[in-house]
Amino acid sequence: MVSWKQAAKPFLSSFKRFTSMSSVKQEMNSKSKLQLSLKTPKGTKDWAEKDMIVREAIFSTLSGIFKRHGGVTLDTPVFELREILAGKYGEDSKLIYNLEDQGGELCSLRYDLTVPFARFVAMNNIQSIKRYHIAKVYRRDQPAMTKGRMREFYQCDFDIAGTYEAMVPDAEILAITVEGLTSLGIKDFKIKLNHRKILDGLFKVAGVADDDVRKISSAVDKLDKVSWEAVKKEMVVEKGQTEETADKIGEYVKLKGSLTEVYAVLSQDADLSSNELAKEGLKDMEILMKYTKNFGIDEYISFDLSLARGLDYYTGLIYEAVTQASAPPSNASELKKKSKNVEDASEYVGVGSIAAGGRYDNLVNMFSEATGKKSAHIPCVGISFGVERIFSLIKQRADLLSAVRPASTQVFVMAFGGGKDWEGYLPERMKVANELWKAGIAAEYVYKSKANPRKQFDAAEKAQCPIAVILGKEEYQDNKLRVKRLGPEFADDDGELIEAQDLVPTVQKKLHEVYEGGVDEVTRLLRGL
Amino acid sequence: MVSWKQAAKPFLSSFKRFTSMSSVKQEMNSKSKLQLSLKTPKGTKDWAEKDMIVREAIFSTLSGIFKRHGGVTLDTPVFELREILAGKYGEDSKLIYNLEDQGGELCSLRYDLTVPFARFVAMNNIQSIKRYHIAKVYRRDQPAMTKGRMREFYQCDFDIAGTYEAMVPDAEILAITVEGLTSLGIKDFKIKLNHRKILDGLFKVAGVADDDVRKISSAVDKLDKVSWEAVKKEMVVEKGQTEETADKIGEYVKLKGSLTEVYAVLSQDADLSSNELAKEGLKDMEILMKYTKNFGIDEYISFDLSLARGLDYYTGLIYEAVTQASAPPSNASELKKKSKNVEDASEYVGVGSIAAGGRYDNLVNMFSEATGKKSAHIPCVGISFGVERIFSLIKQRADLLSAVRPASTQVFVMAFGGGKDWEGYLPERMKVANELWKAGIAAEYVYKSKANPRKQFDAAEKAQCPIAVILGKEEYQDNKLRVKRLGPEFADDDGELIEAQDLVPTVQKKLHEVYEGGVDEVTRLLRGL
User: Fold this and answer.
1) Which of B68, B294, B448 sits opposite A431 (nearest CB)?
2) For chain B, which domains are there?
3) I want to staple B439 with a disulfide (CB 3.0 to 4.6 A). Which of A425, B128, B480, B504 is the partner?
């Protein structure tokens, strides 16, 4: 008679701490480089293994927060009628992916989640909604050297549509932005904040003609990537402004600081106060200051007049969250020059903003008007989390990744026996696994009639499975099963021999020990707790 | 002094049972019909409101089952290189959506999740994986009269790749299919099951030439939609088979019954037993019978020789789950004729199969070989749940839909006061909501400084919110809050006046009362419990 323990002995002692999947992954990477014809399209990628698990933890954290704020989710088609997207993205429209004209309607892949949301609101005549949407968007960009810029990437949006008192939903969106990032363990970030009306007002004050405002705004928008000199040159040489106008703009867009500080400076500015648009914007900022205090988020906010945001549709407050890791330092261009001979130049290449958004009061209107019906004016404000950029920040946390298990398997069902004519209990293992599945317990077994103990332990190890249910050749004939904790600290533990009918409660009890406290390890680490 | 109760009194009594969103929805539908230029592309739709919540419950139920079986998830790009999809879908290739050639690689939207999975396995040289994938796929079909056929629709796949003993993973896939459907409260279904090798063998035995096998198979595949006469005509007239061959095929494909019954008949068939392919298939079925018994799923299985499955890549076991509601009865064409004058002809139009799949042992190989490297032979078997068809079955369950709340809001924060100069406690409501959010509690408030009690109760009602936290004008100045259950049965309940510092524990206690047992109502109803 061979007991399960005798059969397994040689393997139990070598049951080393679960290795990460890194060796498998390395092999995968080297192979895929050789097989050039077998790939995903440029700028796209597969999400698998630990990356996928971390990404899902990010999604569930963020959607939990959105729900906490009364959000409901919406899913729109991945492509829209081409005319829906037309005229919404300014200079970036050239990046839209079109579907081939195969007869019928002309369609394009969505460029963001905001325009489809506005289309939905207008189409269904919705008066108010708080919606979140986590989905992929598409841009025919040149996949950049900078981390995280892809042609297919996720956005994670929360928007509030409806006519409300000034700055009330806006302030909540900012609170959600802070809640979202801190819940993902990102603490050292700033939300750069500006107001389109103040920006447009200061352009006017500086002498920019009405028709030039948008293109000057998009020049200012580049200030986080290039120097002021380059932006000034663009304004003067390419966009026909006078030196004087450019310099005046330069003075304003240098301003940044706390809401209170910058508001104090601007509200004293006689030129700006004479402009109606700017005055409206400043009134908003005054109200906002009151609300951000109640949400306790002032420390994260930097009122920054150089923030312009590229998209055409913003009409009020605009904002962008950056981290130390994602933002180039203020002397970026200098550092870049210096670092030519330095090994780690990548340090100064930011991943860009990790969340961004603003108020867009006319977008729904644009759609409503297109229907020829009396237009419904539905103001909107929202935030879009840059999930892939956030992901690349989080991926740097080694503690987090090492805690991620490849699969969710809780129990590995094994059989140990011996003798030439032993059948290996495969049907019996199936039966036991089936009982566990029915009780909601994740179970696997080796897909082999006569699996030797080594193979079965290897498989359990690969799945980082915490519990084994063992069918010993003789024990099982006596209607008995052995339930045993796995892992190096239990190498000498025989486990517990139980009556077969007690399987489910015994396993549940052991699982309770394993997952004591009930906290999901990945989510805990994600929050930086 | 106006107490919160006095201010609210007129509204508490009219606080009727939460209405469903149906009136809002009706309005939405009628409007959207008028606005024809504002729509989603043909064959696509928006998912919102209750539909979205039910769909998410379906997804989480199925992915829970997949994880229980050791599955890991994978996310591939929505488009693939066009050459990856080429030659995989037989006659259906014409339904593939292409991206416009805007320079660079030629790409197409994925047609299913199986080919991208096989590409992933081949590309990364993976030897074994159990993966699930829930995502949208694209087919330029004519959106049909039959329910649930769209151009963009979800698939929900579980596949096992790897070299294993015959029928071991196949049997588990069948167990997962049963587990998936029953967990969604679908009990009256059958899994039609056949084997490509038996099918190919019987075609040979009937006299079909090697080159004609695939096209004859695709003729047989139509048997669930058209009569045998029509299929026979297609074989003889269009596909050049003799009457005799067609009749012989006709005899075989009429066979259906339990695994044991049909196996008994076929294993006695001298013609079939003389064919090598058919013999291999029958050997598989013999093994399978043993395993399905261990999983206790025999009652769901119907061995049906008329099942052929359209796709080129299947090589072994094939299966398709149908329900009473989804399958046309065996005399469908007759009934159709008769029902011309009958009002409810739609009764006989099935929604098609609700889950389908099979074994495809050469697909990964096709990709590996394309790389010019020594081919890795990775056999696969899988199941694809037709989520949208399942969804339309589930949507008929009124009890389920009426239990779905539009949002997850748990607490509505209100302020009641009075007097012309009362400011309405908006910043104070924000502060209280913020405290709840930080404790992980879903809270909302009306976005208005001076919101009257009626407006606040209406908003809470719309969100079907179970608890109110009330800031009474004087009570709040005394650092006190009122926590009150909402709903008609609590109309006369004053709630509990508490110290402001006790807010979170008090709300948590009340929430515990509301969600007693902790069971998610939607999930419970989904399972038909």
Assistant:
1) B294
2) 4-21+406-523 (3.40.50.800), 49-399 (3.30.930.10)
3) B504
